[in-house]
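FORM 12-B: Structure-to-Sequence Request
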């Protein structure tokens, strides 16, 4: 079994202007993450992959392309979560058959599910496959904010091996770290990689590593080696970049930056907006400033 620790890009997907998967561009993004960013792994089908706007067939196609391009060169985690639990189970089986190293599922969203319903959702997905599950916790998008004891209840299933923690609650992060030393924790906010690493996360999964993976690596390795002043310098530059990216539109700007680097990262899928000329011009300036 592959070690699941390390730095992961939450994989972007290239779409053409009509919103169809641009396979050639997707393969180029994967290659850039392997050859230039030197990621330890890819998190396929996450928020960054615009996954919740895609059909089941499109999700499967992306999982296939990622595995086919990456082969065994890095760790692959597939996000299969959906409010359609039957779809999640189908995708969990599909990616397990493809040889994905682990699966992950976002907490079910939109309806106000009870915790028992959430627990049943995780146990059902992971019960259907011989694989490992990483909880995807992102309360600011899902509205699901779990407590330490609720994480503990989910973690009591030995196949639930960790959490992707996209939250700024560092008190809760510290409590999870201390209480569950054997579970994996991934930092989900790239702008907080340094403090999360100091608190002992095992890895990080994020959107901006698709273009800024080398700085992410420096922060992660420096912080693990207790070189906090040096790590903070790189985090400062990274956060200037992330602030500029967020101001200009998150996923679209990362795609435009990749295009400046020669990668056919394409467009975002509607309802996400089309690029405006101002957005494209600003992305060129951002690229010159940081790369
Ligand atoms: O599932 C995913 O695509 C992620 O890994 C999401 C990741 O946590 C990102 N969050 C969102 C909402 O995109 C972060 O990497 C985030 O984009 C970054 O920290 C900038 O705020």
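FORM 12-B RESPONSE
SEQUENCE OUT:
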């Amino acid at each position: 079994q592959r070690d699941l620790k390390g730095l992961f890009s939450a994989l972007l997907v290239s779409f053409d202007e009509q919103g169809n998967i641009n396979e050639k561009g997707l393969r180029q993004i994967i290659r850039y993450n392997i050859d230039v960013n030197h990621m330890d792994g890819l998190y396929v089908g996450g928020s960054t992959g615009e996954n919740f706007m895609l059909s089941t067939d499109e999700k499967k196609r992306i999982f296939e392309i990622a595995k086919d391009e990456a082969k065994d060169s890095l760790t692959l985690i597939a996000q299969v979560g959906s409010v359609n639990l039957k779809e999640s189970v189908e995708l969990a089986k599909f990616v397990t058959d493809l040889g994905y190293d682990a699966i992950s599922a976002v907490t079910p969203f939109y309806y106000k599910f009870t915790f028992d319903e959430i627990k049943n959702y995780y146990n059902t997905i992971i019960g259907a496959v011989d694989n490992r599950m990483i909880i995807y916790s992102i309360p600011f998008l899902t509205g699901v904010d779990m407590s330490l004891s609720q994480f503990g209840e989910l973690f009591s299933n030995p196949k639930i091996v960790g959490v992707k923690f996209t939250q700024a609650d560092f008190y809760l992060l510290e409590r999870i770290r201390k209480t569950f030393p054997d579970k994996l924790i991934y930092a989900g906010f790239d702008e907080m990689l340094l403090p999360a690493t100091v608190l002992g996360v095992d890895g990080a999964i994020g959107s901006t590593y698709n273009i800024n993976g080398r700085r992410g690596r420096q922060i992660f390795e420096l912080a693990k080696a207790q070189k906090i002043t040096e790590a903070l310098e790189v985090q400062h530059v990274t956060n200037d970049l992330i602030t500029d990216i967020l101001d200009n539109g998150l996923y679209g700007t990362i795609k435009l930056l990749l295009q400046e680097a020669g990668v056919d990262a394409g467009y975002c899928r509607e309802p996400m907006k089309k690029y405006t000329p101002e957005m494209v011009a600003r992305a060129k300036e951002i690229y010159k400033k940081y790369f």
